[in-house]
Amino acid sequence: MRLNTEQEHFFIERIKKEFGRPEEEAAETVKSLQKLLYEGDMKIVYYLQYRVFKENDPAYTRKLLNFLFEGYTYLYDQTDNQEEKEKLGVGIQQLFTFLFIERCTYAKEMEEQSLVSQHILKSVSDRLNTVLKTQESMIANLSHEMRTSLNTIHGYLSIIDESKALRGEQKFQLKKAIHGAVSLQSLVKDILNITKINSGQLEIQKSFFDMEEMLLQCIDHLSIEIKNRQRITFEYESMFAPFLVYGDQMHMMEILINFLTNAFKYTEEGFVRLKMAYKKEPKGIRAVFSVSDSGIGMTPEQLQDVFNPYSRYQKKKQGLGLGMHITKQLADRLGGELEVESEPGVGTTFSFSYLFEKTRDHQPDVKGKKIYFYIEKSMQERTYVKEKIHFLKQHGATVKTFKSENSLINFLLNAQKDIPDILSVLSEPQNYTKIDALIYYLRSGKRFEKTVFIAENMRQHLSLKYFDDLYEYCAPVKIYEKLLKKENTSKKSSGVGLSVLVVDDTETNLDIFRLFIGKDYPNAKVDLAGGGYEGVGMCKVKQYDIIFLDLKMPGMNGFEVMRKLKELNMTLPPIYAFTADVYKSTYDKIFEYGFEGILEKPLNPEHLNEILQRITNAETAE
Amino acid sequence: MQKLLNETKEKAYLFLREFGFEEDELEPVIAKGLLDLENTINHLAVVLEKENPEDEELDGVLHGLKGLLFQLGNHDAANKAERFRYTDDLDEIRRWLASF
User: Any CB–CB contact under 8 A between B57 and chain A?
Assistant: First the structure.
């Protein structure tokens, strides 16, 4: 048996039409098909199986099955021979079976492959998560290490500062060193933040701060540059700001320090000017910080890629060219706006504008304090000075202003009971040295031993020995407050009456805690609890001034202790989380639970003292 | 274990002296700290002896070990303990323990 000519023609035409095969190939296929149907030769089955596999397309399989089904029906209808019909049935069944099995096998294989892929993906994802966690942990640990060393430097400098062993010029230098250490601490933090920017994990840490104080810290950071670059005049202009703003001070400082560094880098002579102005807007206070210079300036082309990474206009200059790129990223992340204007050969102005939506009135703690000024003539009409004096009076300070050198000297030599808490001098540069010598004389007596002498607005570096504090620019009111507070806190620093509870399951941690507190607060009472339950119990029977709470403890962990304490409906003192897990997630969680802050492990006495100082200050203020 | 204890003792003195403490102030604290450390390491060894230690228990011991080592100034070992908190390779921790 075999296909007749008409049947062959039918199949050849169908193959050409359905599968686009040429005549010869279609004729060969029909021959193979015939061999299967009438001789049981499986070659065509294997070939079609291969095609189905290779095409890997359900539409192709469907087309093939339709073709076979139609062909079978066509042949079946044309024959009356039962034996032939049966053979046809067997052949077609083989084809259907093979093709169907092939598709099913293929689908099964795909399913298995998909499962394998899913498994591999899950493993990779788990591994990546582990790597990310390890990195996060490494960054945190690295910050521990670097900050510990810097805190030690800062701590020792502060001890020298607080001991009042230094005055005048040396005090001025010490202050610069302290600010340098503080800036370095910020920079270390920032380096870590840059890593975080890249991984999208930069933490914005907002708090209320004084803009003027921030600007002076920026200037301090550049103080050596300002002093050494004698062909450049550094200018600073700021509006008086009787309010505190809520924002990320540290990152804003980095932006401004980058502006200033850049200005000094590209200016050979002329000026660098830092300026701050603000205005009220319906949604808050918009401050604009700008740094202008008379440097080399930039062409429009250079301006276009000034915020791109690794762009430096002069390759001989130091740096990687990352500063402005980081600045832009920081500004974007903070939600501020950067602007730059420049002209080749004339200079450049970078500005950062930020809308502080949250502000609060500055309520300086100066009530009843005597703050006296000597203001030389050219300064007397300056808006800034007038506003500052008005502000101090408004908040209860007794302000006296000496307008001539003679009246000041006369007062200092004759004052008996009217002794100021602060005496600030804003004078011509040559007069500071004269007053410095007078302070030396006054200190030999007892009358002015509690008076803080400040030299303000010196406009240049002066070598003064006996002033307590020196400022090249006008000092913000915050500085007065700090100086007045220092006087008060020294009385409290031994920790008389201070009651502390430390909860940690590791005995060594408790011992070290006690050792550290005892060093600077020998009179503080320190209770130790070795676990959460014990800690809660102790809080029930005693009122503490501050609690340090380990977060990870067996039994009741720190978060559970916190929740339990809140449920007790008692007045809770500030509670600090004591932990080595300083990840962002930890920060988020501790604030969510109502902790006052974090004290990181390993315990650093400087951090601890900062916190205890805050507590004692608050008590003193009450 | 002695190797780690000796190394930590040395580092603890260096680290805590940095903060201005005298030898006699530090001695009892460090001695107690080393005892704590020995107990924690023993605890870790016991946990690792189990065929399938519980994650939570292992993490708790490693966390404690890390804190203790940090506080005693052995920051390298503390970092290692922290890293082990995120590894599935328990044999690596066992090898580390065996190395001292």
Answer: no
